């Protein structure tokens, strides 16, 4: 598909997106088109700009140049079209579980509406809490919950506003391996039920390959026609973008040889500073992947 068609049909569309902080270029010409209902997992070396990319999509930060569209519209400030779950600190410690989940609904309407619909809001929040298996914990405070329970509250808080895109920044990063795997399966169940698009940043390659319908690798380790003399300010680009098979999800797939090979390949492509691919030969095999290289970037 060409970029114009993708721009019209994608749930999330980025073209020629740059982001700098002062003189530091972080994101260097990002092109990305995501169809509704995908789980896009994002991996890359620490500090390469994964969270920055996520904040741009959320509308929490402004890109330096380029286009960022959510459902064909400029992404603007954070609103109900996008929900976010962080590794920690998604919940307000002084609010109980129910009030934390209600917060999203309450913030989205005026005082009168909030008062008039308080019972309906509360019923809805309880329905979400029941779905998360947290009904009996509605009156507890975040510090009284386990890490996994807290993250389920944070997911409920985001899902209740029915976002088109659920953004997640290492949401399971602080959990022990058992709880982490339970949360992965739980998230896939919610995804099948609610059908939202998920943009999921993680440090864990196994998690990324297991959860995603598509994986993108962001990295600053590559070459292009701009030369290699250390003078070139090079930010991270999408160096790999591929579709992942979504078989009936069983965690057994993690032990398959093919699964391990793919992880090794992604580790090399994105994380090995010595493995420098030219920007013109990145592994962009996903059918919606596109790339607009400028003339000076193309040369060998
Ligand atoms: N508000 C800011 N002001 C200045 N520099 C920033 C700001 N936010 C991020 N950076 C810089 O931008 C780069 C990318 O940061 P970012 O947090 O997006 O990386 P990341 O890939 O999410 O890293 P990690 O895997 O460690 O979470 C880093 O060099 C960071 O220092
Ligand atoms: Mg980060």
Largest beta sheet: strand ordering:
6-7-8-3-9-11-13
Beta percentage is 15-25%
Taking the alpha carbons of the first and last residues, their distance comes to: 26 Å
CATH fold label: Rossmann fold
Q: What would you report as the Rg, rounded to the nearest angstrom?
A: 20 Å
Describe how the helices and strands are arranged.
Elements: H1 3-9, E1 12-21, E2 24-34, E3 39-43, H2 50-58, E4 65-70, E5 73-74, E6 82-86, H3 97-107, H4 111-116, H5 118-131, H6 147-159, E7 165-169, H7 177-194, E8 197-201, H8 205-211, E9 214-219, E10 222-223, E11 237-243, H9 257-271, E12 277-278, E13 283-284, H10 295-298
Q: Please, could you describe this protein's structure?
A:
The protein is of the alpha/beta class and 300 residues long. The chain is built from ten helices and 13 strands. The strands form three sheets. The chain has a seven-stranded mixed sheet, sandwiched between helices. Strands 2-1-4-5 form a four-stranded antiparallel sheet, with helices on both faces. α3 packs parallel to α6. The longest helix is centred in the middle third of the chain and has 18 residues. The chain is globular and about 65 Å long. The two termini are 26 Å apart. Adenosine-5'-triphosphate (ATP) binds next to α2.
């Amino acid at each position: 598909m060409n970029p114009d068609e993708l721009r019209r049909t994608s749930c999330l569309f980025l073209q020629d997106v740059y982001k700098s902080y002062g003189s530091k270029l972080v994101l260097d010409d990002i092109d990305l088109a995501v169809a509704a209902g995908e789980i896009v997992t994002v991996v890359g070396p620490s500090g390469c700009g994964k969270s920055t990319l996520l904040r741009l999509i959320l509308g929490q930060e402004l890109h330096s140049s380029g286009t960022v569209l959510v459902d064909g519209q400029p992404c603007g400030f954070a609103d109900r079209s996008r929900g976010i779950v962080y590794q920690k600190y998604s919940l307000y410690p002084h609010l109980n579980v129910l009030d934390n989940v209600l917060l999203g609904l309450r913030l989205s309407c005026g005082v009168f509406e909030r008062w008039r619909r308080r019972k309906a809001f509360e019923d809805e929040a309880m329905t979400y809490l029941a779905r998360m298996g947290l009904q009996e914990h509605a009156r507890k405070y975040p510090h009284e919950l386990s890490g996994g329970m807290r993250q389920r509250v944070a997911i409920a808080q985001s899902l209740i506003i029915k976002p088109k895109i659920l953004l997640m920044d290492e949401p399971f990063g602080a959990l022990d391996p058992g709880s982490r795997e339970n949360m992965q399966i739980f998230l896939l169940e919610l995804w099948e039920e609610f059908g939202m698009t998920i943009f999921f940043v993680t440090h864990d390659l196994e998690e990324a390959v297991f959860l995603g319908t598509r994986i993108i690798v962001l990295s600053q380790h590559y070459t292009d026609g701009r030369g290699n003399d250390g003078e070139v300010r090079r930010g991270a680009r999408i160096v790999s973008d591929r579709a992942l098979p979504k078989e009936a999800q069983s965690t057994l797939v993690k032990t398959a040889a093919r699964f391990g090979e793919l992880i090794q390949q992604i580790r090399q492509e994105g994380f090995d500073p010595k493995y420098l691919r030219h920007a013109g030969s990145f592994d962009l095999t996903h059918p919606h992947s596109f790339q607009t290289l400028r003339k000076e970037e193309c040369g060998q």
